[in-house]
């Protein structure tokens, strides 16, 4: 009886842990997609002439909206892109 109850508690804790990890990964993926779409949209709508290359996409994909702001800021400061 105790073993089955302990096994049930362990399984529930493992499922909750997996759910938290998947939820964080899902939020990271959504943030990355929003950042990339913001970069492409900003470049298209405002004719900013930001070079969309490997590095600008990687910075935006990892940073999301913050990465998008970094890429745009670096472009207007003349440091890159």
What does the model show?
The chain has 3 helices and no strands. The protein is rod-shaped, with a radius of gyration of 21 Å. It has 81 residues and is mainly alpha-helical. The longest helix is centred in the first third of the chain and has 44 residues, at 2-45. It has one domain.
Helicity, in percent?
over 70%
Q: Report the structural category.
A: mainly alpha
Instruction: Spell out the helices and strands N to C.
Output: HHH
The tally of helices reads 3
Estimate the global geometry from the Cα principal axes. rod-shaped
What is the count of structural domains?
A: 1
Low-confidence stretches: none
Give the mean pLDDT: 90
- Beta-strand residue fraction: under 5%
Biggest sheet overview: none
What is the end-to-end distance?
A: 65 Å
Number of strands: 0
Radius of gyration: 21 Å
Keywords:
81 residues; mainly alpha; rod-shaped
Summarize the model shown.
The chain has 81 residues and is mainly alpha-helical. The protein contains three helices and no strands.
